[in-house]
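ARCHIVE CARD
SHELF: 3
SLOT: left
DATA:
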Amino acid sequence: MAETPIRFGILGCAEIARKVSRAITLSANASVYAIGSRSIEKARSYAESNGFPPSTKIYGSYEAVLDDPDVDAVYIPLPTSLHLRWAVLAAEKKKHLLIEKPVALNVSELDTILEACESNGVQFMDGTMWMHHPRTREMEEFLSDARRFGQLKVIQTCFTFAADAKFLQNDIRVKPDLDGLGALGDAGWYCIRATLWAADYQLPKTVTALHGAVTNEAGVVLACGANLVWQDGKVGTFNCSFLSNMTMDITAIGTKGTLQVHDFVIPYRENIASFLTNSEAGFTELVRGWSPLPSEHEVMTHLPQEVCMVKEFSGLVGSIKQGSSKPEKMWPSISRKTQLVLDAVKESIVKGFVPVEVLSCSS
């Protein structure tokens, strides 16, 4: 029997929603059912310009989407400052929740959202798309291989892009009342998630923001970085920025091997992605080169990573609707750990780049 598609309602007309609505359309187990904006004219124009199905319900408020009994799940791409209100209300209306990152302004807000999801039995997942690419699973296999990779010792991540003057002046990600976490929340979220992913989601003991963080006149971070230290001696470093050329790197170094990927957030190509591995590398005779040379691994996919995300989320929601399972707790747990580290970085910046214990940010 064919699986009944999960009916999505979209809150707002954000640019990223164009990509995710396309992913919903391309996913066999999901459909765009409704969109709501503060203006019904804006919602209608957005739906038409992005090729939404003619049957899409058009609403002039977010509340109307949440009040529609036929909406199974909502996608929330609103500014981070609005996530708490609308995510909690969505959960209370029994709508499953796919929410853009950063998921909250701090872990206290996120805990309120997650408590609402848990008490109402709805699935929570953030919109970190690269986590769902089949390449990610293949990279995990290498990192977990004691023979080829060994134990993680160092993890370095970077996500930067050079925003233009219009972005730096007007984008919501540089406005303290809308997305006050700036580059830390937007690009740094990916770096922190990748760092935790490589460390099998073990939280670091301390986080210290790097000197040289750049903020705009309103105090919003435009560029920053941090060092992370684990109890067992692992170390990590990340950099994120709106001011540097586009770079999306992960380098994970183990006792026996190294993993490198240069396009982890958004692959260079939609249908194929690669990564490099090297195990027990050394020098050739007279130190004239490396042996063995790094191996490049290519991973094909028929579905873009955002479609894989929607498909996985919708599958979880479908199982809950059928009564065969309860909400998956892994995804909210990963989001919370990412938020905890992000909070620690922000606290370190505010306090003058001092070390901050991660768990001290959990209250």
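SLOT: right
DATA:
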Amino acid sequence: MRADRLMAVLFLLQQREQVTAAEVARELEVSERTARRDLDALAMSGVPLYSTQGRGGGWRLLGGARTDLSGLTAGEARALFLVAGPASAATPAVKAALRKLVRALPEPFRVDAEAAASTMVTDPRRWGSSRIEPRRPPLLDELQDAVIRGVQVRLGYVDPHGAETQRTVHPLGIVAKGPSWYLVAHTDAGRRTFRIDRVTSVDPTDDPVHRPDDFDLATSWREIADEVDRRRTPLEAQALCTPDGIVMLRIGLGSRLEVGGPTADGRIEVVIRGRDEHTLAGELAGLVEWVEVAGPPGVRDHLTAIGNALVERYS
């Protein structure tokens, strides 16, 4: 959350002619000691910030409250504005402040800073039952820089079968999906995703990225993730669920559940996706109190076998 605080402090300085550590502490609900550390950190990072001592003293931005923040380098500006993007854990208020602050940046930085806020998406859901801990891929920064600058890259990549290839791609955005990172890019074969931990080399070119006018990273990733989920769980089962069981199904099945309309007996039609008939029957066996599977017949047969086995063992 420190990045949140630094951005909030920077915006306070942008709004006011001068602030004291006590005022910063009150605004951000932190100790004065923490506020002083944050002010010092901003000054050391290159923000044109200075302090005056004594009565009436405090912290000011060089050039007054409407400075263009020209003490920031292009890289620092991009880094700061990543906090405003969808991948950030920043609060909505801080993100709103950042979007206002971008208007104070000098023109050469503004485009890159605004682009940085839309280069990443975070999808906290993991694929399947993966428990792998997140690990930052070595070439993530190089790819993110290419996305922000809007340049094509020659990409070295190892596919799932171990074959290494070289290709030129148009980087469109980066997604953090659970423990994994993905590059969304346009290629000669259309839109593709690349797992960044399989990227072996990144060689930026001077050629600009061809970015569709209507491209939105978050929307594109939802389409990609939905398609992957459908491929991983191709089987669809039709069922009826009691109204009080819908919550249980949502908890257990997540996006694999589609809820339809009510039936004459008050139950609700649902469609449930699964990997195969046997696996899906095993998942649904524990929901028998709320769910009645209508089909396919193979799922019902597996449920019957599970029920008979339970009766034989526990009767």
